[in-house]
Amino acid sequence: MSASSIPWFYKLFLLYIEPVSALAGAYYAALRPSDYLRDLTLPQTSYATASDALPNPALSPEIAASLFQLANLYLLFALNEHLVLSSTNSLTTWRRLLFCLLVADFGHLATLVPLVSGASVGSGLGWDVYYRVWDWNAMMWGSIGFVYLGASTRIAFLLGVGLQQPAVKGKKRA
């Protein structure tokens, strides 16, 4: 199957929408780090927000370096997804890259566990952070909801949903 036979939804989402979203994540992590950290919380909860818990709005060198590294990884994600997938007609390459990005999706969701368990800043968001969509702010929609969409899209692609299946070649019967 060539890339031209890949359904438009996959191409639109995986080549354009998701890479642009990753660039937005890179922008906030690198250039608006206080906003990035502040928004890692649910509104209207009894939990402490990152900005309440930080004694000083200035970021420590360690946190700043970590956020720059995160921004770099968002940039890598965006470039890797767009440039690799848009440069090949190989369904095998698409599947391999999307599998790797699916692993990254689960890793990204797992990074919220310190917030859930309270092992980090604040008293934790609770496990309900993964499903309390009515309380999500823009950051939570990006960090959870959009990751759900990306992972679901990758799972659907890997399962062959919407993809034309090549004809099975076998021996001719006499």
TrEMBL record:
Membrane-crossing segments per the record: 12-30, 63-85, 97-119, 139-163
Keywords from the named record: Membrane, Signal, Transmembrane, Transmembrane helix
Protein name: DUF7704 domain-containing protein
Signal peptide positions (record): 1-22
Domain DUF7704: 3-162
InterPro entries cross-referenced by the UniProt entry: DUF7704
Statement: the UniProt record of this protein carries the keyword Transmembrane helix: yes
